[in-house]
Amino acid sequence: MGNPPELYHKILNIPKDTSPQEIRAAYKNLVKKWHPDKHPPSSKPEAEARFKAISEAYEALLDQQENRAVFGLCNDGRACERGTGGAFCGGGGGGLGAGVGTRMERTRSDDFCTRSAPGTPAREFKKVYSSGNSGGRRAFAEFSSSIMRKAPPLERKLECTLEELCRGCKKEVKFTRDVVTKNGSIVKKEVSQTVTVKPGWKKGKQVVFEGMGDERPGCLPADAIFTVSEKKHPTFKRVGNDLVLKAEVPLVSALTGWSFSFRLLSGKKVSLAFQDEVICPGYEKVIGGEGMPIPEHKGARGDLRVKFEIVFPKELTEEQRAGLAEILKGSC
What we know:
This is J domain-containing protein. This protein is an alpha+beta fold and about 325 residues long. The chain has helices at about 5-10, 20-35, 45-70, 125-130, 135-145, 160-165, 250-255, 320-330, and strands spanning about 70-75, 80, 85-90, 105-110, 110-115, 155-160, 170-180, 185-195, 205-210, 225-230, 235-240, 240-250, 260-265, 270-275, 285, 305-310. Strand 1 and strand 2 form a beta hairpin.
């Protein structure tokens, strides 16, 4: 058996009932995208492989379309050839039908018919891959399967501080990948790439370098995937797009008034003062627009949430207890 048409349709990303005009349009779009001259060295091997598969699939599908125009169907469901005056249906080497015309020998190969006479519309590609040449069919099958398969991705972590994720930065990453040499052996090669971290990126964000992973014989080069991980910050904790700051307040300050200052991840200094209010346990103050940038909405930011934890004294003297009881009498 030859290569099924479904394989060619899959390579060109078109449905089965596509017309010749639509096949040409899909082919033109894909060869523009995957022309090797338009790709950098890192992705050129993949581009060359895809370009070759696209071209071969295009030739094969057009040949099949042209053969349908040349051959009809006999009453018993077998393919038959049409002459100028009628159809010729053959049994073994081909039989003469009722019409008048030049008799042509019919052969059957790969589930469709070809003519052995000069002037056949089948292209050279078909002669190699769609004839009885099992070696040609096998070569294309192996080649096509490799086009549809990539080596497993090379995965690494991209550690970022909360400041880097807030402000954005550029990080150079170095990694070792397997490379297939011209003689087919695999060697280790150290490469480096630059990752542009955009403000607001979250842990779990993936950066993909196509074709920069490990190489394996008979496969497309794997992708190198870097997944963002967030280093623990000593002051802030990220919750979605918000930043949470925990502030410890002595009991006496929570009751009598308190102020403190701190710096945001951007370096901006913020001061908070509580002079005319009592800070209760679990109290939270929200400062709008001082959280993390939101990449999906330019200029938008989350909020800063300051959570207060009241620090109670571990022990009190009898005199202190009595004094507090007198002061707080009737206040609650």
